[in-house]
Design brief:
The protein is built from three helices and 19 strands. The protein has about 200 residues and is of the alpha/beta class. Strand 18 and strand 19 form a beta hairpin. Helices cover about 15% and strands about 30% of the residues. The protein has a seven-stranded mixed β-sheet with strand order 4-7-10-13-16-18-19, with no helix packed on it. A six-stranded parallel β-sheet has the order 1-3-6-9-12-15, with no helix packed on it.
Length: about 200
């Protein structure tokens, strides 16, 4: 009996894996050395050309969550021995660069763009344009790449906003909203995230 109960879940897992492999194959540049450890769902906005987008993943990394490419030419680069955990979403219009030995916990959000214009007169037309299938006008939306350096740890449900650089070995406390650069070797937390304390400088191996 348990076999028949497990069968639908297994079939769904197979279908999801096939969809993931098709998305990876559609990318213009894709380096994923260990496919069994790449479990992320990949999505492309309607006006995105996947052949112009890129994913590069280093050896020994475990990638889960959701990766959404919002603009043609968007890039995701992940180093060696890094993890993106379940429920985490990366919204990529420019570039997200994640170093080696990085932990990104559950339900985090990485946004390298504002999503909408700061001008309300422009923004009030966004829904109608979306429903009509018109491409987003990125010239009125602010976007800048995100960089997370080696050995950083991003706590659960943290939000990393556009243009942020998180320094080597720093820790982002759970639930924080990071809107400014974080220096190396420190803990920040809160909304907006602010300095909590310094950490010992780790040795390079």
């Amino acid at each position: 009996m348990s076999y028949f109960l497990e069968l639908p879940a297994k079939m769904i897992a197979v279908l999801r894996r096939r969809r993931r492999l098709r998305a990876l194959a559609a990318l213009g540049n894709c380096t994923v050395p260990d496919l069994p450890s790449f479990n992320a769902n990949i999505a492309f906005d309607d006006d995105v050309d996947p052949s112009q987008c890129e994913i590069r993943v280093g050896e020994g990394s475990l990638i889960d969550g959701s990766l959404c490419f919002e603009r043609s030419g968007a890039r995701l680069q992940i180093g060696h021995n890094s993890a993106i955990n379940g429920g985490t979403t990366c919204m990529i219009s420019d570039e997200v660069v994640i170093g080696d030995n990085v932990w990104i916990s559950y339900d985090c959000l990485l946004l390298d763009n504002d999503g909408h214009s700061m001008d309300a007169d422009i923004r009030r037309n966004d829904l109608q344009n979306y429903m009509a299938g018109r491409p987003k006008n990125w010239s009125v939306v602010k976007h800048r790449s995100i960089t997370i350096e080696n050995d950083a740890w991003i706590g659960a449900r943290a939000i990393i906003l556009k243009g942020v650089k998180i320094g080597k070995a720093s820790i982002i406390a759970a639930g924080s909203v990071v809107s400014k650069d974080v220096p190396p070797n420190c803990i920040v937390g809160g909304n907006p995230a602010s300095f909590i304390r310094q950490l010992p400088v780790i040795k390079d191996f």
